[in-house]
Amino acid sequence: MASEPEPVAWEQITKNIHTMLIRLQVGGCTCDTKSPTLDFHDVRCVYRQAAEVAGVLDTLSDQIEAALLAAEQRGRDAERALLDWMAKDICLELSWGQLDPQDEGGECGWMVHRRWGNINDTEWHLIGTGDTPAEAIAAAIRKGDTPNGQ
Ligand SMILES: [Zn+2]
């Protein structure tokens, strides 16, 4: 897939396709069979084909919806883990601004700094940068900076 649809997109579009398949079934028998039982209809009967495709679509839809929801949950869990890592250490700070303070008008981004020293002698060490807060925290973790600077 070029891009993954949001679960809501999948839900809405499959609902529309399902409605179309129901419309094909209503009065859709092309084999002159008076029974609702699919097996009695010819394999080329529109009623039977639409019902069978609807069944496959329902199964596929449930599977894809579950996969998309699981992916969404994994994303939330991963973000939660990043925030938990930040929360372990009150000396870590997340901010947005110029990545290089010496480069006036230079590139901006999200940064994680470690604050060192006391109130009169504070230093900020840049330990991670990224285009998003999550990327900056992940970069700080990859750098091997440990909670409490140990
Ligand atoms: Zn039929």
Structure, described:
The chain has 150 residues and is α+β, with helices and mostly antiparallel strands. The protein folds into two domains: 7-79; 88-149, no CATH class. The chain is 47% helix and 16% strand. It has three helices and three strands. It has helices at 7-25, 46-87, 133-142; strands at residues 92-98, 108-116, 123-130. The protein has a three-stranded antiparallel sheet. It is rod-shaped and about 90 Å long. The structure holds zinc ion (ZN).
Instruction: Work out the radius of gyration.
Output: 28 Å
> Could you estimate the helical fraction of the residues in percent?
40-55%
- SSE run: HHEEEH
**SSE-based structural type:** alpha+beta
- Fraction of residues in β-strands: 15-25%
Distance between the termini: 43 Å
Q: Which ranges are low-confidence, i.e. pLDDT below 50, for 5 or more consecutive residues?
A: none
Spatial strand sequence of the major β-sheet:
1-2-3
Number of helices: 3
